Amino acid sequence: MRPAFFERMTKPEENRLATALSEGRALARRYRTQLILALRVTVAALSSLALAQALNLRLPLWAVLTSLIVTQMSLGRSVKVASDYLIGTLAGVAYGGTLAILIPHDSELALLGVLALAVAPLAFVAAFRANFNVLPITAIIVLLVPTMQHVSPAVSAFDRVLEVTVGGIVGFIVSFVVFPSRAHALITDTAADTLVMVADALFELLKDYTSRPDGSDLRRRNDRIAAALARLNATGTEAEHERNARLTSGPDTGPLLRTLLRLRHDIVILGRGAGCQLPDEVAQRLVPKLRQIADATGAFLRESAVALRARELPPQLDGLECAFEAYAEELGTVRREGMTQDMPSEQTERFSALGFALDQLHAHLNEVHRVVGEWAPQ
Question: What is the topology classification, in CATH, of domain 183-374?
Answer without folding.
Answer: Methane Monooxygenase Hydroxylase; Chain G, domain 1 (1.20.58)
